[in-house]
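Consider the following assembly input.
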Amino acid sequence: MNRNELISKANEALSSEFEVEISSIVPDANIKETLDLDSLGLVDMVALIEGLFGVKIQAQEVNAITTFENMYDFLYSRLNG
Amino acid sequence: MKRRVVITGMGIYSCLGQNLDETLKSLYEGKSGIIFDPVRKELGFRSGLTAKLEKPDLKGVLGRNQRVYMPEQCHYAYLATAEALKNAGIDNDHLAASEVGLLYGNDSTAEAVMKSIDTMREKRDTTMIGSGGIFQSMNSTVTMNLSCIFKLKGINLTISGACASGSHAIGLGYLLIQWGLQDCIVCGGAQEVNPYATGSFDGISAFSVRENEPAKASRPFDRDRDGLVPGGGAATVIIENYESAVKRGAPILAEICGYGFSSNGDHISVPNVDGPSRSLKMAIRESGFDIRTIGYVNAHATSTPVGDRNEAKAIADVFGNCKPEVTSTKSMTGHEMWMAGASEIIYSMLMMKHGFVAPNLNFEHPDEDSAKLNIPSKRIDKQFDIFLSNSFGFGGTNSTLIVKNIKQ
């Protein structure tokens, strides 16, 4: 999966699950603020990503993923690493 | 000194209607809400009969962060409660400024539990259950969700009393208000309708197998009854201290005048006569009413052979030569279980307010015990101002409520 495909797949799923406009999901945006995630919502995001890409984001890794760009980087490196 | 307790609002989501108006129409017309569901047969059910309920779509009504914690029955409970609060004239400002309580009957949340366990078994990773799993899987799911959605600040408690849960919720709320511990409580009962909620119940051969005639399957008190039909939804009543209801200009619909309860202390599933009889007598004693003033009895009768027979005996024992109309609205709704004690207060209230007794559908041939009661199989147009409602549950828990009309 190339990076653009990864971004497109992630954005569509996040937009659908968390009911936000897909246009609001931009690389520099803060994930928690954009998706309106509290600590419980964050669990759902981790589960969604795991279900979608088969990549588990560990608890200690979540804190480092602040923006969508961070997430794309993380996923791309894990899928192509 | 005991305070007076009144009903100021009602709301319902049932197989008879998705609001009070629709439900009133179905009651008046004697409409059955029972269908045959082939999915149940595919799952190995002995009976494919069930009440028909459409799951509401709350997207756009509640946010994703609210809906994610709500199992099926919470959707029904939300809509019933929103309708009840609106009819009681209670808005968000009032809720924010008061300590409104919440007592709701619920005694299972099977589908949510099952889905969580299925995910755990399949994925071997509990994170994949998602954040909603825990909140949907607890028996108190209805009260935890409603209290957060409506920002309620008073008592917050789920009542699990099997098929008497909804009735006990109202009865216990009545006591709390009567003794001055709360001024206003949202009371009710909710029941999931998905097949997983009732598979084990079907497994003990408790359900009717009259699958070729779904509308005739639930036939309380009839000689040829062969079991109950599961149903569900949610029903909410707003109960308040009379003085505070008057003070805020609330619509005062009726007064709760008696709550009786008892335990059979007997078999886990087979009801007896003594327990229900004591519950009825306690409610009547508490109300102080002459039984001749009770114009209608909403029976618990679920259409099971033993349960209906023993309730008929208990009612005949208590009422003697008085012959108020006795019907079971379960002939239309099936058995709404955790919801039934609350929904049947609403069905009875709608009848009392509109001057009729809905038919006990399918009562074609009495048996030896039901022959002693006055059970109309057709709608009766009559005015009555006091009714009694019975609810009994597994483990021998019994609850009886007596409600008096208030005309404003």
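The first helix of chain A runs from residue 3 to 18. Ask yourself how this observation constrains the way the partners meet.
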